Amino acid sequence: MSKHNYTFVDQYTGAGMYGWNLEDDIDTLKFYIQKFADDSFLEILTRKLDQEDRDAIYNLITGLLKKHLTEPEYHRHFLKDGTH
What we know:
Layout: H1 8-11, H2 22-36, H3 39-48, H4 51-68, H5 71-79
């Protein structure tokens, strides 16, 4: 059984608009992030990114994880490694 699930993107019926209100902004972000994480999409995109783009994405993600998650949250919810 997979440790990951991506149900929000399949159930989302919103307009995908950003900047109107907090709830819609959060839902739109969740939608885009899950679309972005699709395996077939990532296979196409990652092959087209140059080193600067890859570094920027990696640094953004790791920076947000460090800023907003405790170490136990990082292991439990992001890595899902069962160590914390």
